[in-house]
Amino acid sequence: MQVTINHQTHHLTAPFPVHLQELLHRCVPELKAKGIAVALNNQVIPRPQWEQTAVPTQADILIITATQGG
Fold it and tell me: What is the dihedral of CA 9, 13, 18, 23, to 10 degrees?
């Protein structure tokens, strides 16, 4: 399985992640859940849906971190 997270390709071996939450935990373990938004194939996925959202191979995931300032 291959996915792209923030323009970086990740090649995953079996067992493959079942849902978005598992994939994020596996590929970006240092990721903090607060203050971020996640888009899967250009569609923002609300945090409550991460555990139900399947991730297809060749998925493009973008993680956006909120920052302060203006």
Answer: -40
